[in-house]
Amino acid sequence: MKVIECKPIQYTGNCSITFIRIDPENLQDTLSVIIKALIDLSWLSRFDQDYMKESFRQRANETITDIQRKIADCSDDKVTKEAGEYVVSELARGSLIRNMNYLDIPLSELLGMKVSGNPGFDFHSQNNDTHTVIFGEAKYNSRQSAYDSAIKQVNQFIIDKKDIKQIADLQPFCTHKALSRANSGLKGFAIAFSAKSTSSDVLIANIKEHTKFTELSKYVEIVIVAVNL
Q: Would you kindly state where each structural domain of the chain is located, as residue ranges?
């Protein structure tokens, strides 16, 4: 995986906006890295109680097995529809951790009871400087850049208060200050999507003109992550 762009975006208002573009390069190598990251359960050490560790371990193991099966179906040059959003989610999550020094929080599906099909945001992180929780949504489309569906899904989740509902799951990972800020509306969102050959400048211009993106700009921070898939 190679981050080929990571830059601030100028926009009206006080929202901090960052654009990141990722090139997976060798897809099979990238998929291997993703699997390695998924099976790393070192985050369980954050829990003092053994019963909490074992509960989250059982949830995560079932989901990891399911994701591994879906990724195994990918070929050398493309991902399947089922695996696509996992790839976009994990690459976007990793870019926040490595390129922006944000908090490392496991994918949402590893924390939930449901083995497959996360009912809320796909991934989360935290801006440690501003104590801002980042709620991330990933979309994959094999035919066209998927930013439209990602933006619309984020907005719908906000309407449905999916972000507020997931705060309880984030309590073991985020700071109390960040969770309190999120609950009061001071939060951020990551819009991650598969991108085709469209140039970054065109992608950014289209996203900035999107009506639903304007609604998101009232929040503290937005991170846009385009993944070349």
A: 2-228
